[in-house]
Queue: 2 jobs
Job 1
Amino acid sequence: MPPLVFTSPSLSTKLPLLHHSTIPSATHSHRPHLSGDPPRTVVITSGKGGVGKTTATANLSASLARLGFRVTSIDADAGLRNLDLLLGLENRVHFTASDVFSGECRLDQALIRDRRFNNLHLLCLSKPRSKLPLSFGSKTITYLVDALKTLEPDNPVQFILIDCPAGVDAGFVTAIAPADEAILVTTPDITALRDADRVAGLLECDGIKDIKIVVNRVRADLVRGEDMMSPLDVQEMLGLPLLGVIPEDAEVIRSTNRGSPLVLNDPPAPAGIAFEQAAWRLVEGDTMTAVALEEADRQPKRGFGWFSFFGR
Ligand code: ADP
Ligand code: MG
């Protein structure tokens, strides 16, 4: 394995004033208290494809960056890379981690700085539609993440988020290897839940004990009509703490096509607010409590009514 060279004039200088300070946070005017020992390495996984892993990674990354944390997001879905699209950075991916390991560039050159947040970087493992070299496995990615952690000793990264590929094959095993924590994204349907349950078991076998769930694409009308499982049902079936409940929201698709994470929408969209709340809980090591429907219906609507419908 060639040695990695980490010196970078652009990254080793002190960060200039973050231009994101001009973008108001959708729901919060103060910063959450960071729990745990940074850098925290969090894998966003699911088992089933298409449930919202990349959407969650992009929105949590943007939220954390806007809150002022230094974030590096790794697109570990090598075959179907699209985190760059969701962050609107597709034209700036000149080098990838594979190029670092083949000796074509330094690690800092493969880090793509976000246009809106100086403190948010994206790292793709490989070029679109190109496969990872077979030698790129758990040890390689762990080595890479260790290198990211020490890249800037004066201004170290605080969150490394890893967008995991679907399935439980080699790509999954690689993506979870460096993580200490996992966010398990699921939709409230039985196929996604079965896969999520399997993945939770595999994560635990791998030594990842801190696993929280995000229930995505929830429709309050269907839950009320008992045509969709409620977040409480999902939580009880998986037996894991709940980080967030994200509603089905057409704005997700619009923001994906614009290459701008939904959490940056002004005025805020319901799913954007829910992702921001999840990011806030992630920072603080907090979870939410799903409530039973009868209890939710009894509660007076306060603030964003939709959210008190599902939890507190
Ligand atoms: P994954 O990374 O798990 O394969 P994606 O994040 O790419 O999933 O999402 C799959 C599709 O679902 C995308 O078209 C995305 O826009 C859509 N989607 C994700 N979350 C929501 C949501 N809360 N509301 C509406 N559409 C969503
Ligand atoms: Mg994806």
Note: The pocket of magnesium ion (ligand 2) is lined by residues 53-54, 77, 82 (CB under 6 Å).
Job 2
Amino acid sequence: MPGFFITFEGIDGSGKSTQARRLAEALKARGLPVTLTREPGGSEGGEEIRRLLVEGAPGRWSPVTELLLFNAARRDHLERLVAPRLEAGEIVISDRFADSTRVYQGAIDPSLRAMAEEIHRLAIGREADLTFLIDTSPDLAARRGRPGREDRFEAKGDAFQRRLAAAFRALAEAEPARIVRIDGNRPADEIADEILRITLARLPAPLARKGGGNG
Ligand code: ADP
Ligand code: TYD
């Protein structure tokens, strides 16, 4: 596909939504075509499935049902939004994608890791071109806090957030060509500068030319 697909990953409160937004703004300011989106959600159907996932009691779904719902949301998002925009040559930035399923659903039930990979291969079949792991200490992420009622996952507690952080790091070590680990324990401006520099250096030639070269 002619576009460029960037994803942001990290634990809850790591600062990834802030950085996804900052990168989208910086690239748009350079005249590049950018779509900023998120998972679960992003498309109309994806957002409907999101409500089923993030609201309600922690035990609302079994781990397998939850895995299927995240993939259903992702399939709709990919079909309706991500793939068409990439085909049109845009940069698509998604706040979370498939690594979140590997890490979260894998942490909830390690026996689901193999099933998660198989479903991904069959139903999604695509990775990001570039993934930023915003690696923020769970204590700091928790202190930053976030209001709101989408709390089904955050209700799982500190020990769970630490397991997630470790699983994200392991994924980044296993896939160094795609996943760039960014120290999230710094001021947002400093992080945004680093991410923009890396992105400009990795854009495919036609987009890099539009954005004024490789930084
Ligand atoms: P996430 O999407 O990972 O849950 P957010 O980007 O929503 O995280 O950030 C969580 C909170 O922390 C927000 O209130 C945001 O303004 C704040 N925040 C984000 N990045 C930083 C940073 N580098 N330093 C301090 N606060 C931050
Ligand atoms: P999100 O809105 O990104 O939460 P936050 O802003 O707190 O990072 O995602 C909602 C929750 O869903 C979040 O706790 C992570 C979880 N999640 C999964 O468990 N699996 C997935 O595949 C995705 C995309 C998210």
Note: Residues 63-87 form the longest helix (25 residues).
